[in-house]
Amino acid sequence: MQSEVTRANFDQWIVPTYAPAGFIPVRASGSTLWDQQGKSYIDFAGGIAVNALGHAHPELQQALVQQAAQLWHTGNGYTNEPVLKLAKKLIDATFAERVFFCNSGAEANEAALKLARKVAHDAVGEEKSGIVAFSNAFHGRTLFTVTAGGQPAYSKDFAPLPGGIRHAVFNDLASAAAMIDDATCAVIVEPIQGEGGVVPAEPAFLQGLRELCDTHQALLIFDEVQSGVGRTGSLYAYMHYGVTPDVLTTAKALGGGFPMGAMLTTEKYARVLGVGTHGTTYGGNPLAGAVGGKVMELINRPEVMAGVAERHRWFAEGLNEINQRLHLFSEIRGLGLLLGCVLNQDHSGQAKAFNQAAAREGLMVLIAGASVVRFAPSLIISEGEVKEGLARFEKACLAVIAGAQS
Q1: Which of 31, 139, 240, 299 lies 20 to 30 Å from 246, alpha-carbon distance?
Q2: What is the pLDDT of residues 133-158, one digit of tens each?
Q3: Rounded Cα gap, residues 189 and 209, in angstroms
């Protein structure tokens, strides 16, 4: 029988693509986790905007267990009831008329980009294949999506990269307009750049992209992998902005912790992906469909959306109070419960130090680049957990300041 595993085993056994925290969580409830030693942690990370309903939500548990007792997996040669019901929920709640299910945000973006290329190839020819994306974006880790992401640190070691992708400056419409032309098949953009520093798009920027895509017959793809499923206080961020894309990608919170992604689009574009043009073995499996359906049922409610706005105020007020005392952040930005604290010049490049100090104080936070501390907690996190988490965050900040001064 294998003895208890430790954090040191990660460094022995796992391909070193991550540098996880020094503790191992073993159980959780709501927005609190406990590690192997019984120490508690308040969760402001949300599994990177995944755990939209916190941990061990009883209704998600029930949905998973009930489905597990009936049907787990059949492959894409068959359909199933849970995924069809989830598809109808997404269609009824959004602009979409068709849904493609997969397992992750990267797969959803891969499908969206392939769709855009095929739409253009079928209508015009292979010469209409250009993709315009944005610097500092993040769209996934497949070779196609990491190239679209526009962060060379993630792609430079894997050259040669797929061609036909150019990067404009985010929130700079003139920069985008200089690249979008009749050879462009798609523009892919995050309404809020998450990994790129929690930077919301300007409304005029997204509206301008919509108009440019209409002019040049290019598909407008919104990557809502991180901003979707209630994160901004609207079910999807495009609703907040009033700009409707042709294709929308969603994942993370869609499964509430169960791996799931989807590409949403209209009938006009969906029909080009005929039988055999794209696929996935696990995508849209009954377990994911059952959990995703319950997630949508629980989150797509006016009271939950109002609750996101209320919790945004809790965080904004608490973080601003900390900043008034400690003078650490040049800006606190974001929408809903996707927030970024931009470190000022004195602490530029030290986001990881704040992340590590928070863990020592019993708080889980994220970073978004070297100088932004990011928060993406549960959409239903309790006020008590927010207050306790912010108190622990202030202690962590004081520890970083003390370390810098020593």
Answers
A1: 299
A2: 999 999 999 999 999 998 888 898 99
A3: 9
